[in-house]
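Service request form, structural biology core

Requester: graduate student, group of Dr. S.
Request type: structure prediction, single chain
Budget code: on file
Notes: please return the result as structure tokens.

Sequence provided:
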Amino acid sequence: MVTAVHIRIRGLVHGVSFRSSMAQLASDLGVRGWVRNLPDGTVEAFLEGDERKVKRVIDWAKFGPPRARVDKLEVEPATPKNHRDFRIHG
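Core staff response, request fulfilled:
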């Protein structure tokens, strides 16, 4: 089953390879969408694909890469956009 979510990650998530690590994991799992840094210091992402694989990326985002500190993870259901791959924006 294809699912889609929009997530926002708050904490120490800039300058710690959060986007590139998420992009690598998502691509490895076949999850499509994008990730970007926002000016307020958060990371925003759109994930779509197999429900179990999207959940694996969300579970990873609760902690992020080794140097990150995730204080809050917000997940909202979204409408699939039929992305072809996973990209880093910005």
